[in-house]
Specification:
By secondary structure, the protein is an alpha/beta fold. Helices cover 26% and strands 23% of the residues. The protein contains five helices and nine strands; from the N terminus they run βββααβαβαββββα. The strands form three sheets. Strands 5-4-3-8-9 form a five-stranded mixed sheet. A two-stranded antiparallel ribbon has the order 1-2. The radius of gyration is 14 Å and the shape is globular.
Amino acid sequence: MSNESDSSRTGVGREAPDFELPDTNMNTHKLSDYRGKKLVLAFFPAAESPVCTSEMCSFRDSLKELMELDAKVIGISVDGPFANKAFSQNRQLNFPLLSDYKRETINRYGIVMNNLGNLKDYDAAKRSIFIVDPNGIIQYEWVSDNPLVQPNYEEIKSALKKER
């Protein structure tokens, strides 16, 4: 398990903080709605940015394999539902994208990236992956302080295989 940042965040073995966030169709999703399922929560800094596009397309392209490991993928960013909808449609993403436009969830998870791209006071999500087990417990955590670094997809798949 990689962790490129401080240890004050949520943490492996702890309960994942619940959230209530809108998807691209303005339907609300709560983490608690997914109890009983294995989740890959993929927090990303900015819809349609080059690295985020590559990351979300990697999840899109490997979704069948992840589903065979009994996992669901949920993408989360601070972008509004409309920007996420355009991103999802443009990239044919086949999993939900949720909008943390109030930035409450990234604060609860301890993954706030301040001043994204040197934009003063524009806080976004650090690129982060949390695997949450069916009981709502974090089993894997990866957080990058560098928005240009993508997660290790094979490591994610290995962590999901351990959860079987």
